[in-house]
Each structure stands twice: as structure tokens, then as C-alpha cells.
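User: I've been trying to design a sequence by hand for this structure and keep getting stuck. Would you show me what you'd pick, starting by listing the structure so we're on the same page?

Assistant: Good idea, let's start from the same input. This is the structure you sent:
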């Protein structure tokens, strides 16, 4: 496969606006690192697998996967920002097994004029379609009823024994203690929705939300997913994974 990698790297302003303010070089290195460390080694992604990228942005993972996934496999990305989906559709137009979908969902931070709610959004895929699902910093910006529905949809479209990796902020005894001491980034100074989560900005809770581990485990189990492990990132304690946030690894029960 002939691939022009320069064509698959978005313009700098698109990266900064929709990839957390990082630059072009970091966009490339982060994508490479997540694919190699988390997807291929961690999730055991294989070239003929179908992969779903929930919150795909402007293709940070799609770019390094372009020469890994073969014609039997495929990549599908969903995002609530039309600008990044339009760019990806144009840039990957010569790669038919790489597909991108715009979800016109309301988000105070990313899509305030969205037509629909994430709490009842149905992913545009059939049941049991994907081997591996990645949810990168999506739950970080969703209230609990939205996460509930997204986990249900992830479970529906995953194949039995499929793997899901979600990066988010998880509150456990250690991170709660560090939050109380003011040592974390974000600080999550405000309790929100009883004890299920804390937020950084009570006026715009979707800016950054941290969820209680027990609550997350309950939601996963409710929809037939088992949380196999949580790997802690740098935000609430020192960690060695390539994510600032925590990694929640789950598997679909047969």
C-alpha cells in the first residue's frame, strides 16, 4: 500500500484545537505510542481485526493504523465535531476500509448546537461488529447518563470476548486523597452528582469529569462488560503508561 503520511497529518491549527493543544510532532508520537503500546501489545489488535475509535478526533490513531490493518480488517471512527470528520473523510478517501462518522450530539464544550443527546445515541453499526474498541478521553467530557448509554452501545457492537480500552479519570482511595490534598491535575475540587463523580468546573461540568471507580464498574457490569484492570495514569499519581489519564480495560462476556 502506497501511503503519503504527510497527507494524513492534519494542519497544526486543527491538531491544537481538537487534540488537546498538542503540536504536530506530539500528535504523531502519541498516535504511534498508543497504537504500539496499548492496541497492538495491550489489546492484541491484529491486522484483520475491526477497530472502533470512539472520539476519533482528526485521526491520531487512524494514521499509524493505515499500514497495520489489512483489507480484511478495518477502522471506523466517530466524533461529534463535523470539522474533524470532514477532514478525515477527505484525507482517507483512498482507503475504503477507513470510515468516519459525524455524531451530531450536544456537548457544552465541543458541540453546543448539537441536534441530539448522547444519552440515547445509537452507534451506526450492527451488533457484534468490532474486535477492539478505543474510547480516548470521551468519558472525561460526559455526564453519567451519557456514559451509561455509550457503555451499552460499546457492549452491543463489540464481538464476544472483544476488548475495550477507555481512558478517563478514575477516583479511587489514592486519587481521592490526592484530590483532597490539591495534588492532582486537574484538581476536581467540586463534588458532582452525589458521590459518583467530581468536576473541575461546576458551571461547565463536561470540561473535565472524574468518575468513582465503583460507579464505573457498576455501569460496565450492567451492560455485560467486565473490567479486567485499571492502569493508573499521571493525573492522580505517578504512572508509566503513555496516558495522562487512567486506562480502564474491559472485555465483553460471552
Amino acid at each position: 500500500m502506497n501511503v503519503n503520511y504527510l497527507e494524513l497529518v492534519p494542519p497544526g491549527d486543527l491538531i491544537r484545537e481538537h487534540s488537546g493543544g498538542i503540536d504536530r510532532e506530539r500528535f504523531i508520537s502519541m498516535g504511534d505510542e498508543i497504537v504500539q503500546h496499548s492496541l497492538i501489545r495491550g489489546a492484541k489488535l491484529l491486522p484483520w481485526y475491526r477497530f472502533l475509535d470512539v472520539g476519533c478526533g482528526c485521526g491520531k490513531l487512524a494514521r499509524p493504523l493505515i499500514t497495520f490493518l489489512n483489507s480484511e480488517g478495518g477502522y471506523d471512527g466517530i466524533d461529534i465535531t463535523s470539522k474533524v470528520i470532514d477532514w478525515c473523510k477527505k484525507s482517507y478517501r483512498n482507503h475504503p476500509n477507513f470510515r468516519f462518522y459525524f455524531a451530531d450530539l450536544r456537548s457544552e464544550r465541543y458541540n453546543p448546537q448539537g441536534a441530539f443527546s448522547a444519552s440515547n445515541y445509537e452507534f451506526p453499526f450492527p451488533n457484534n461488529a468490532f474486535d477492539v474498541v478505543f474510547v480516548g478521553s470521551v468519558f472525561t467530557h460526559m455526564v453519567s447518563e451519557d456514559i451509561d448509554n455509550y457503555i451499552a452501545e460499546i457492549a452491543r457492537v463489540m464481538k464476544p470476548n472483544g476488548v475495550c480500552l477507555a481512558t478517563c479519570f478514575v477516583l479511587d482511595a489514592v486519587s481521592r486523597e490526592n484530590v483532597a490534598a490539591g495534588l492532582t491535575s486537574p484538581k476536581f475540587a467540586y463534588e458532582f452528582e452525589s458521590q459518583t463523580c467530581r468536576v473541575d468546573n461546576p458551571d461547565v461540568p463536561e470540561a473535565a469529569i472524574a468518575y468513582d471507580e465503583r460507579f464505573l464498574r457498576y455501569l460496565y457490569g450492567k451492560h455485560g462488560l467486565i473490567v479486567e484492570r485499571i492502569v493508573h495514569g499521571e493525573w492522580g499519581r505517578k504512572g508509566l503508561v503513555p496516558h495522562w489519564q487512567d486506562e480502564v480495560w474491559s472485555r465483553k462476556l460471552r
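That's my pick for every position. To get oriented when you compare it with your attempt: The beta strands are 50-54, 74-79, 98-102, 130-136, 158-171, 190-192, 197-199, 209-212, 225-231, 246-252. The chain has a mean pLDDT of 92.
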